[in-house]
Specification:
Blueprint: H1 2-15, E1 32-33, H2 36-42, E2 48-52, H3 56-61, E3 68-69, H4 77-80, E4 87-91, H5 99-109, E5 114-117, H6 121-127
Parallel strand pairs: 1-5, 2-3, 2-4, 4-5
Length: 134
Amino acid sequence: MRNVITPISFLLFCLSGFGQTGVTDGSQKSVKDIAPLEVQAMLGRATFHVIDVNEEDNFKEAHVPGAKRLDYDAITMDALASGKTDTLVFYCWSTECPAADMAAETAVGLGFAKVFCMHAGITGWQDAGLPTEP
């Protein structure tokens, strides 16, 4: 019985961290949240990039002014076309949507250090009374 418990215990230990994203040292997330008002205050800066990972139809309906639309699963160095020291902000529809977090984690994996997720999404942006582009 001892031989069975040891491999199972080891397997459970290994799997205990499975699915945890954004953890760099066990206590800090590599992708931090940013509020819509903070994003608005930084719009227009040359090294500040907002990336919308909503579907094309949603993007055409409303997006953060100046945002670039990318598919959440198509985040590459070429697609981002910015320096690794630039600030990247990803967002999707609302707090219920995981796509922005997944895209942001991909950017971190590519070596970007200043990566944020506007978890409020475009709905939170609009709820804050901020302007959108069609």
